[in-house]
## 1
Amino acid sequence: MDRFPANAHNTQPARYEFVLTNRVDDLTRLSEWINDLANQLQISAKGVFRVELILEEAVTNIINYAYVDNEEHTIRVTLLYLDQTLTVELRDDGIPFDPLQRPEVQLPKTLEEATEGGLGIHLIRSYVDECHYQREADSNVLTLKILNWQ
Amino acid sequence: MTVSLRGTREVKESYQLVRLTGLLDAFSEPTFKKVLTKLVDDGPKNIVLDLSKIDFVDSSGLGSLVLLFKKIQTDQGSLQIVTNSRVTQTMKMVHLEQFFSLHTTVESAVEKIKA
């Protein structure tokens, strides 16, 4: 884990980075990393759960939809943390893929309506305060912000 | 190979108790689906699924639970889920908790099957 701590005046966010591949078994490493980091930052169990869920959902979306080949790719996760505001940036080199453009899922009213997929982006939207996508050069950049992360 | 989900199984006369620990996510979900489908096929069809020690469930895991629940209903069995606050919270975010039979203890889940 690379860490670039905040300066003495705490005007710059602490920065943490994690790099994983587009293999689903790397989700386990991602989970371990965010749990270790949150423990180090003394984040509550509720806060850990919240960021772990949005990271897993966002990375799973990238793995499932951003690649059209069978090659190994790199996904870079960057966390910026200042004054209890957490900014999560996910950067991948896949084809243009904006998960925020996916239609809002209709939550099921009956068991028959309940489906196996499509709930991930709803969970992300539910647990973040701001979300933003942009295409930068050959990369997808998804930015998620959680206010009052503690 | 990384293993993110582990489990045990106890077969009783009228039900089987499956206890899981770890992560029920996009990585472990295919194995979960395959194994649980076989267990239901093997019987008994009444399942007590203990997720109280699960650290984390994501939308992939929830999707598998929906499929499992539908299969068990089709097979005329019963699925009782022992949950914890994290799992329940995720279910509530996508309105799935209303369809599942949720319990806070294994004893409560077993009682429901025997009722």
Note: The mean pLDDT of chain A is 90.
## 2
Amino acid sequence: MKRITKLTATALLLASAFVLCSTAATIPSGVRLHPTQTLIRNNGSEPETLDPALAESVGANNLTRDLFEGLTATDADGKAVPGVAESWKQTDATTWVFKLRKNAKWSNGDPVSADDFVYGIRRFVDPKTASTYAATFGVFLLNGPAVVKGSKPPSDIGVKAIDKNTLEVRTAFPVTFLPELMSNNNLGPVHRASLEKFGKDWTKPGNLVSNGAYVLKDWQVNNRIVFEKNPQYWDAANVQLTRVTYLPVEDGYADVKLYESGENEWVYQLPPGTYDKYKVQYPKEIRNAPMIGLRYYSYQTQDPVFKDVRVRKALSMVIDRDILAQRVTADGQAPAYSVIVAGTNGADVTPYDWASWPMEKRVAQAKSLLQQAGVKPGAKFTFSYNTSEYHKKMAVFAASEWKTKLGLAIETESMEFKVLLKKRHDGNFQMARNGWTADYNDATTFLALIRCDSDQNNNFNCNRQAEELINQGSNSTDPAKRRALLTQASKMIMDDYPIIPLLQYSLPRLVKSYVGGYSLKNAMDRFRSKDLYIIKH
Amino acid sequence: MWSYTLRRVLSAIPTMLVVITVCYLLLHATPGGPFDSERKVSAAVLANLQAKYHLDLPLWQQYLLYLKSVLQGDLGASFRYADWSVNDLVASALPVSAIIGGGSLVLSLVIGVTLGIFAALRQNSMVDYLVMLLGNVGSAVPSFVLGPVLIIIFAIGLQWLPAGGWNNFELRFMVLPIVLLTVINVSTIGRVMRGSLIEVLHSNFIRTARAKGLPTHIVVLRHALKPALLPVVSLIGPLAISSITSALVTETVFSLPGLGKLIVNGAGNRDYTLVLGLVVLITVLTVALNLLVDLAYAWLDPKIRY
């Protein structure tokens, strides 16, 4: 067993001594609730599933977050709070014990037990389930990768029911953010009896047994999904919304039209180029806050030209992120100069030093770097992006920056999304659009983009020295040391310029002013309907 | 007639087979697969997914498995929508598309044929110009412009009708989509009807009918209408198919859960089984509607006998 540092030990003592209280919709004093507590919110697309083990998209996870509850959950501000587990403690570097609340029930009245979590997590990592997230989250659990690969049985996964209300989770290495990680519903419980009874139809209305604040009432594909309050939910007394209707409207303009006609109260995301207009038109209803996500461009670092770090640095330096954010995308996003974005736990943001230079100085240095690398004005490069009005605007701007400031001839090629993905995965590109939103709030979700041997590394750069630092950090039980190592590693890799960080995502949307509980601090954009309420209007 | 119908139905079998085969090969040849996403899945997960959907088998084996399943009436499991089979998805979208597309087609025929008759009878008059103007406007204004305009007026402004969505065949949700599709179809049908009737009205047998002293409405309704309808009838097949299965813009503007959205999303997601299932459906509809059109010819034109 690894030796636990003093700092961690203190944290453990505090965690074990402190029995966390429940959370629910916090209604400020003086706010009067509307007699009808219903909400219609657009979810952006039809979910691929309501099975928490298979949920992959943001939309599907929004739904499973209302239907199911894991050991922990994320509150309106995006913080990890108790879910089915009322408390937890870390007993050694890689072992956590979660105490389940005794009044947690499934929607059919059955108690939620530790066995339900064991069954849910084993099922999630089971190769037969074929969950796309099995490796992403499975990697943190003891024997996770081997189970996902099929070389060990699902029963070997590091989850064990100590008794009906006690669950032990063993991790493959110290995972300081495990409580936050366990809020992902992929790692939550499922109701075994109903799953075995209904087979593939277990998620259909009438069959689905859930343990979250809501139950499934109706599901019309590509039309609507209706949830109703779950009276069996342990915290039902604090759940305000009695009915939530999710729409799957993909088209931003149709979404806004439904909002304006009163048939939708929550626009999923404003169409490109409309933020400024709606900010003026609906000042009380516009909501926009930074998300933990990064818009960036990838280099194919093994390309004959882009294998030279000087070329990669030069092209990154000359893109004016301020103009990109304020004039081109103009939807409240923030310039990014690091792979780690603001609000990410586990590492600091380390912007490039040239980020604060005047543009003339940046351009002069970029030209010099290109000259040293033997790249002459007029040199031709190809930039690939997937067809979208938004990506096109950004690509045209970037190409124009490279052309006007460095004299390069950039050919932009637009293609279908899957074709771009194939190109990126195969390394068949020079520069390509890319983007990432965090799966969990920790620096490692972003480091996956630039680590050696990572599935998410589309740039094919590998910095073994930094990799060693990340491994040291991952194995450290001291949060401060871990943070320092991950920060150092991220800076080290970013000095290789494998990617061009551009903007930190934000999610501009319209939400009716009478929808309470919407926090701008929720940087993962994970809003439980449980935390929302309708103000008298 | 019956033997002709039987022959046509039987000849549809090789047609279907060719369509499925070509589509199957095209789908698999298209770059990017169903499991390619922004977050690349690990090799182990990809292997699990491929095993689950039989993509680990040789292509010919997958193809035979698919054909066997189609013959049993099972269009397979959707690659994208894990909780639904393709049969489920088609069953939920087809009625929506059929009622919107079919409803607009019937309305378009009634209005388009009527306007076409009026325009043809008053050729080069104000009525004719007005009908032609309406027809040209209907053709020229794209549905993605006209649709939002209808929403702004009737849903947001007057608040008479919903801006979109669908609620168990409730009429008010159907009105605007049907109106939009009807405007598009009327313009085509009206122009074709007008041209066809003008041509028929200049025929010798019409001149004979007039010479006999028959009143205009008898000449038109009893003698000219049936032959003049032939080009319109030949339009019905493709119009019905496009209105039912490819009304993507209408479905997008009004957020309808129809077939067009399934096809486009299916292709974008490389949802092989969903796209193939919809191709099978469209082929069946095309064959059936073309057969009905051909049978209608025989009814309308005494020179055609099967």
Note: The longest helix of chain A spans residues 389-406.
